[in-house]
Every structure is written in structure tokens, then in C-alpha cells.
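RETRY 2/3 - previous attempt timed out on the joint model. Re-submitting the same 1198-residue input unchanged.
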Amino acid sequence: MNMNKMLRSWNSEYYVALECKDLQANAMAVDSTGTFVLLAGRRFLAVTDLDSDFVVHKFPRQSKYAVGAAEWNPTSFHKELCVISSNQRLEVLTWRTEELIQNFSVRAHTRVITDLNWHRFDPNILASCSVDTFIHLWDLRDSRKPTLSLSAVAEASQVRWNKISHHLLATAHEGDIKVWDQRKGTAPVQYIAAHLAKIHGLDWSPTSENHICSCSQDNTVKFFDTTNNRRPECVLTTNAPVWRARYTPFGTGLVTAVVPQLRRGENSLLLWNTANRNTPVHTFVGHRDVILDFEWKKQHPDDTDFRLVTWSKDQALLVWKIDNYLQKLCGFEPIESKDPFKSHEYSENFRFFKKTSPKVQPLQQEFSLLNIHIPNLTILKMDAVARHVLVKATINNFVAILKVNFPSAYPHGVPPGFEVVKEGSNIGDSIAAQLLQMLTHLALQRVSKNRTCLESCLRQMVTTLEQLSSDTENKRVYTRPYMDPHNIFNNSDVYIPFPRTSGAKFCSVGMLVCFGQPVHARRLSMKADISPRTVSSTPRALSALENTYSKRPDDYMTVSAFYYQRQRSRAKQNYMKFSKAIVHIYDALGLFFVNKQLAEEYILDGDVGTICKHNAAAAAVVGRWDLVQTWTLAELVAGPQQADEENSWSNHPFGNKLMESLISDYASQHDIQMAAMLCCIFGKEHDVSVRKSSLKSLLSPVQLVPGKKWLKPESSPYHTIPPADIVADGWVLPMLRTTRSTSLDNLTIEGPLKIPAPKTAPNSLYEYYKTAYAETLHRWGLIYHRTEVLKFMCATPEVHKGVEFISDCKHCMKPAKFGSCGSCKKLTLKCVICHLSVRGSANTCVLCGHGGHSKCMKWWLSFHDTCLSGCRCKCLMQTAGMLCP
Amino acid sequence: MVSIINSIDTGHEDIIHDAEVDYYGLRLATCSSDNTIKVYDIKSGAFSLLDDLKGHCGPVWQITWSHPKFGNLLASCSYDRKVIIWKSKEQQRKWLKHYEYANHDSSVNSVQFAPADLGLMLACGSSDGSISVLRYNPSGNAWEARKIQNAHAIGCNAVSWAPADVPVFGDRQGADEAGHRIKRLVSGGCDNLVKIWKEENDRWVEESKLEFHSDWVRDVAWAPSVGLHRFTVASCSQDRRVVIWTSDDCSTWNATVLHTFDDVVWNLSWSLNGNILAVSGGDNKITLWDESSEGNWRCISDVVKGQGQVNSQ
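RETRY 2/3 succeeded.
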């Protein structure tokens, strides 16, 4: 065992390793060997060696932010590395030969970093979490951007790697815990609604992959099994909000500390055995202020006791010994006890604090007491050994760098020497002279009374420069034309996708609408530090623009500004000269098979042979020889219509198959025009018949009996299809079968079944080809052609939604659809003019219901505008008014 | 094969985020970061500004035209969390605010009118994670909203409607099933997922969840089904990939990677008949893709913008 340790002054259970009031450290970390302790605060970083006596290496920091979290790398491979967080930045430092060297510093998050944690096993992996809701995983080998970003919706307060599994990590978000698997970065693998109040600390069990404990503001510590996270396995209730709860490296113990801000006089740590959660098994009493952090020190291989290192707010570092009896209380059986300090056990009354303050020189003391929070002033260098200070003041448009040299006799009657450093300063000689005069005068005043003068001189420097610059300042026009970006683009922007700056859309039939950045304004290469969370060069979220703003505070923060970051003056000119909002419209019709000219030329009316001939000619004009061939072939197939039935191609199984495969071939090439045309033409006979019959039902004379209600139409008369049609047009037949009545099936069976029934599946697509072609025609404005195609729609398109007029029989008062009543067989309408029953063409007024023979009505209404019946209806005018609103 | 018909200097003061030509190809609407929407008459190769629509108080991300049978409606969505439907007045030369929907808690990133056969409907996807489906009820002369809450964790970036008429694919019988007019949507979001939604009894339910992308999905586009023999959806992502999803029944989907691009891909568009896909992304390039008869996707062109040229093979 180390001799130094033997000489340590132990009281019963702890010794004071360090007391150093001026450190103002708020974070503490113990390295993996258990030798070094890092203490980090706003003003200093300090490393102390626990094995050698009271040696502390202090390194001043120049930062206005305190250190949020600090941790040593837990692996032996990188045991010299430690990481600290300061506001949004991560700093990785190397401890080597009593020097702390910064490896790199990266702006890791957009808001303050709340916690850090090294990977337990991989020496290069580090996790950080922040109020900005992201958890970033960093690889030391490429520190420019995170290797993985986990996006949690709520701000994260803690991040902890699993101590067993290589992939799991847990984060705390207010009262919830999320467990992530770094292989599945999209979403947490577990979500535990753990507490009702904020979680302050998380700790994974050192022995089980699935166990985690969380401590919270609600005075509890909860233990969860992540495989069954509905409710905690057990709950430990204390009497104060719990700041940290950590498993002991032995047994089933747990150490808790209260929340430091509370200052309830709870300056003790509690040791619990999780098996018995009613009372703590031990209280570590010794600190005189609240404990900020505590950590387990690695056990020496030949030690049986464990050491706990604690850091309190009064800047005291204590090392606690966990004796065998405490270990036993936590359910741990040490193998063998050879503790040399056993004799000290239970000697509670003996308390001893070693004074640790090293010999502090007056100058060093002054430096440590200096309040560096002087507005507009930054301290560049402060060296107590070389006895000089370098400060930089930035006031309005003035920048001054001042060097202050302290003679060895200072401050006893000897003033320091002041000097304005030319490099970096922009103040004129006269202003510099005025400044130095002021400072020397003030310094002399103070040192004559043996007082220190640095802080007052620095403050004087700021006020002097402010006065001197105010004259020129008055002339300056201060322009800050745009709003604070954080008002417009708030934090939720990290979830809003980065705006598109280019795009292409197919519109109408064959138009391609394109827009985008002009070529000369191509985005300049992005630096990795602009947005560390972006994986590729183009940012993901709108929040990337915030960085633009912070870099270039005087520019309008928009997407375009984002693209004009460097070479501003030149780019700015271009930016103004060239409009950035040009839309190009391309005619991409050439890429498609549909052809507008053909669409206009093609016909569908007439007999199949003529249609094919005409269309072939049209295709020839356009130069589509492939289509000419198809049309000629189609003509052949349909040709011998008038000829002998036996030789007809259309009756030949081959002819039908050919057309079918032609249509499906065109469709698979997306030539919707050809597919639809062929569908129309080769469904022709059938369709015409259907059309005729359906037209018949629509156009049949409609009559009304005056003042009667209108009724809805009923069925369509499909039975009017003659069997001959069906036979001649065998291949459309199956479609009929799916939509028509069963009586058709009987008819086909009777017919000459030479043709095997084709499959249904492709035919059901034909309707879609026609609809699609009709839509194309519609978009082109070829309304007539569209209607031509729609005539060939097989299924009666839609249920008629308009009004249909049905009259009631004047004799039996039953609804009669046609000229004569279905039940009494009498004619239903009597002419109001000649008082004869109407047979044939009739007209009635839709308003008053009076009407009669078309001839009579026409004759009467050509002379009069009121109804003959005397109902005072102005039939023509009022009907016209009703139909055209 | 491809020629430029028109180059329109829209005069927007900032970057354009979307441009769309209406059903007949007569009017162009553009929207921009300068918070405005402009409508141009682009008949016969000339262009003239018809209207400058001001109503949003944030960058306007996307616009969509309705089918002309509903009148010339234009819908827009913006960073200001609003969706505005504009209706034309005065012989269709001026557009006025017809309806404003402000029931999202974050930026609305995507809007699209449903196919005309489904009636007048509009889908909106927002960064608050939800999708809204607005339907016009002619009897009450009012817009009714259905909201799919938490459609995508973190945020929804894109929505696209399935075609109204869907043939029955494959050899399955039963074309007379009521399956013809099932309303479906596809959406993509920050949870890296593509989701298929289906309307069932007046509610939208998640039909399938397509997992493939490793970063935010930026755009989705449901291909017109005509000529294709199965359902086809394209999705693109921040992970620089475009994926073509195909399915026979909308429940099991196969993914094919179309291509991995050099930069983020954020825009997809199918041609009217669904055979060509236009892809554009962060590198400012537009490429057109079509599928060979063997089922391989190939690039048929590169449109380099700003130069006004389309190089096609």
C-alpha cells in the first residue's frame, strides 16, 4: 500500500483530501484508476492526486459559463481523458504530465448541456444531452459532428450508459425515463413514466442489464426493471428531494444525496440497503455544506474496503472509507478483512480537519479574488508567475488590448506598468495616451495605501473607453432591422423540416414545373460546425437557420441568407441582380406516349374498319409508324364484319387474344391513349347496344299528371340486349357477367360456345384505361373527344342524381313511367289544348304540370306566355328561370 | 424530347418552396418564404400575374389546386400553422380567402387536395405530428375536419392521396366489392416512417407502417394506378434515398431502393399516368426516372436548373 496513504490523517471514516475555497468548482470527477480527481468550475479546472499529499494543479479557465458536468473516461485505454461541458460546448481534455491539454472543444448543442456520460466500454464514445431535447453520441475520432442523434421530444436532464450492455443508454426527461438502443436511433426502445416530479439522477445497476434506478424531486428513488416497466419494482422514500442515487459497487446498497439548492442542513449522504428501504443503514456525516457530487473510487486490488469521494459546496473534497461492516449491512460479504484502519472504527468523537490552504502569494490571491465579470471586458491571460495580465476591452467600435505588468514589490507602494498592445487594438494613439494616464493615476492612488489596484483599474479602463467612444458613437446609425430570430424561429424548429429550395412537379398532362436555386448561387460548402446534428451536408431541420443568424447577426435570417454565407459582398450583388424566384415550365410530353395531336385526330364514331383506317392515317401524319401498324392490324381483326361469320377475325379466338394482349401491352408501357382507344373500339358493338338500351330508358317520353309528386327511377332494362350481340362480342362478355343479371348467363350457354371465356382480371382494368384517357383529354380541354370516350364506358357511369319526371295515371292514380299506365293500360296524359289523350311526343310544364301534345303546346306558347289551363303559370319563362339560376 | 415552354420570373422576394400548375395547365401558382402566393396566367407561352395572395404570416411551404369542378380552389400551408383555402372571384382573376384552418400547433408542411371523385377534400400534414383531413360539406356549406392525432412522432412532413379509382389488382375476384372508393392516404414524417392510412367508418386508421428509411422522410407520392398493376408509393428521405413501395393489397409492401442520391432528397412527383417519377433534392438537381419492362428503375434525364436545359437520353 502506498505510504502516503498510511500517513493520511483519518478520522473515524473519512479524511479531507482537499479544501480549496477559491476553486469555486461545481463539478467533480474521479478517474478510472482512482488516483486523480478533476474539479471544474467557472474559473478553474483543477486536478488533484489522491495518492500524493494535497498536490493540486490549477488551470484558470476563461469562460463566462460554469461547468455543467465533468467526467473521466472510464476505460483504461483512455484513462487520461476527461470531458467537461460548459453551456453548449463540450470540451475534451487530456491529463498528461501534470498538464491539462484541451483536445478539442465543440459546440455540441444549441442549448445548455445538462449531462455527459462516457460509454462504459468503448473508449471513444461519449453521450451528451441537453435542454435542446437532443441526445448526441460522439466519437472522439471524428468530433465534428455526432455519430448519432437521438431526438427526444422533451428536454433531457440526464444521460447514462448501461453498465452491462454496450448498446443501451437511458435518459431522463422531467419525470420520464427513455431507454434507447443505439442501434435503433429513431425512437426509444422503452419509455417509463417514472415520476411525477423532475428526475435529478439516473443510475444503472452495476450487476443487471435491465435494472435502473431514478431519483426525483418527489423525495423518492424508484427501481425499475426495463423489461417490465409498467410500475417500479420498488420505491424508496426519503424525507427530502433526492439529487443523486447511485448503486454501491458491492452488495445491494445505494447512496443518496439531497438536492444541493435546498440547503436544508442536509449535508450528509445516506447509505441504504435496497432490500430494506425503510431506514438508511448509515449516514455519512462530515461535510459542512451540501454535497454537490460523489463518486466511487476504484478499489485497489489489495483493498477490501471501498472508497467514496465526495465534493461539497464549501469546496471540500472528502474520501470516505466503506468498512466491512457497512458492506455487510448492504448485503455484501467481503472475502477477507485486512484493513489497517480497523483500529479507527467507532472512534466517533475524534474529528480532525487538516488545513489545506497552500502558500498563496499576494498577487495570486488578488487574481483569484478578481471579479472577471466586468462588462465589455475579457481577460485573455492571467499569469501569477510571470506576473502579468492581458485584458481585452470591446466598447462600441473600440477594441483595446491592455497588458499590465506587476513588479515584485507590488502592491506595496509600487504601481503596475500599463501598456496598450498594438496588435488587435484599434484605438488611436491619443486615446491610448489618455487611457494610460487615467490608469496610472488611479493605480498610484491605491498602491500608495498598499492596496491592490487591478480590478479598479480594469473598471476604470472600461468607463474611460466608454466616454471616449461616445462621441463617435453618436454619429453611428445603429441598424438592427430584423427581429430576434428566437421569436420567429423558436426551439421547436428542430422538428420542422428544412425548407425545400428546389423542386419539380408534373402538372396537367405533360408539364414539368421546376424551380430552384440558380446555378451561380449554389450553396457554398457547409462547415461541420454550423450544425453538428446534420448527417449530410444539407441541413435537416429549419433550426439550422438559427446558426446562420448567430454567425451573421446583421443579415436577414432566411433560407436565402443561409445560402449566401461566404463571399458576402460578391454574392450579395448577385443575389440582388439575379432573381431567385424563377420557375421553368418544361413540356415533357415527349417522354410520354400520349399525343395531343393524335387525340384530336382520332375518331371513335363509325364502323370499326373505317375508324382503324382513319386512325392509321392520323398516326402516319404524326410519324408514329408503330401505331400505323397497330391500327392496320386492328383493321384486319375487325375487318370482315360484313363477311362470313365463320371467317371473322373477331370470332376467331386468335383475334380476341391478339387484341387483349395488344391492350395489355400498351397499358404496361403506359400508353394510355392506345390502350383506351383499343378498349373503346373493340368493345364497340356491345357498348353500342348497351348504350342504345340505356338511352332508350332515359329518353323515353316522360309525362306528368298535374300536381303530383315525382318519383325516382327504377331499374334499367338489361333484358333488351339481343343474344346475337353477346355472341358476336364474346370477349367483353365476362364483364357483363359480373355486372348484369343472371338471365344473360343462360343466354350465352345457348349460344355457339366456340370461344373459351377469357379471364376477367385484365378486362376489369379496361374501364380504368378509358377513365384515365378521358381525364387526359379533359385536361387538354378536348371535351368533345372526352365525351366520345366516356360513351364507351361499360358500367353505367353513375346513378343518375338529377331529377326524373314520372307521372301518375289519371285513371288509377298509380305511377306510370311511360305513355300508358301499367295497370289500367290507358293513356295517362290528356292534352290541355285539344283535350285528347296523348300518344307520342308530349311536353309538360315542370312547374304547373300542365301539358299535352308537343305540337299543340308549341302552337299555344308561340302566341301566349301563360298556361291555357288558367293556372296563371307563365310556363316558358318560369321554367327557364328554374333551369338556369 | 423535353423542351422549355416558359420561364417565369415570379418576382418573389425570397426562395420559392412550391410551384404547381392547375388541372388544365393554364395557371401557375407559386409560394415562397416571402409569405406570399402568386398566381400567373401561363396560357400560350406568355405569362401575366393574376394575383398576389397575402394572408400567411410565415413562409408558405406548399400549395395545391383543386379539380376545376369545385371551382378554382387553391390551398396553401405555412410555417404560421395555418392552412388557407383560396377561392377565385371576378372571372377567376382574383383569389379571396375562402376558409382558414388554424387547428395545428406547429408548422403545416404539406397540403394536397384529394382526387376529385372522392369529393372536395384536403389533407394537411403538420410538424405537430398530426394529419388533418378537411372535407367540404355542401349542404352545410362548411368544412369539416377530421384529425389523425400523433400520426408521426415529432412531425409529419408530407401527405399524398391514393387515386380514387383503384382497379382490383391480381387475379382476385370480387370487383363488385365496395372496395372501389376506399379513401387512402400515405404520409411520411420525422419518425423515419411512411404510413398508409385508410378511412373506415368515418375514422382514419393506420393500415400499414413502412419502415425502411434511416432518417426523416421528406416526401411521399402515391402513384396514379392506371397502367400499373399494383399499388405504388414513392418516398424520399434525408437519408438520400428514394424508395419505391409496391403492394397488391395495401397491407404488405415491398421496398425497392430507386437510387441513393448525393444529397438529401426532398421532392417527388409522378407523371399523370404514373410512369415517370421526378426527383429533386438539396443539390438542386432534378432527375426523371422510369421503370423498364424488367422492373428496373433508370434515370432518363437530368434537369439542371438555372441553366434552363434538360438533358434527356
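Residues 151-313 of chain B form a domain with the Methylamine Dehydrogenase; Chain H fold (CATH 2.130.10.10). Closing ticket.
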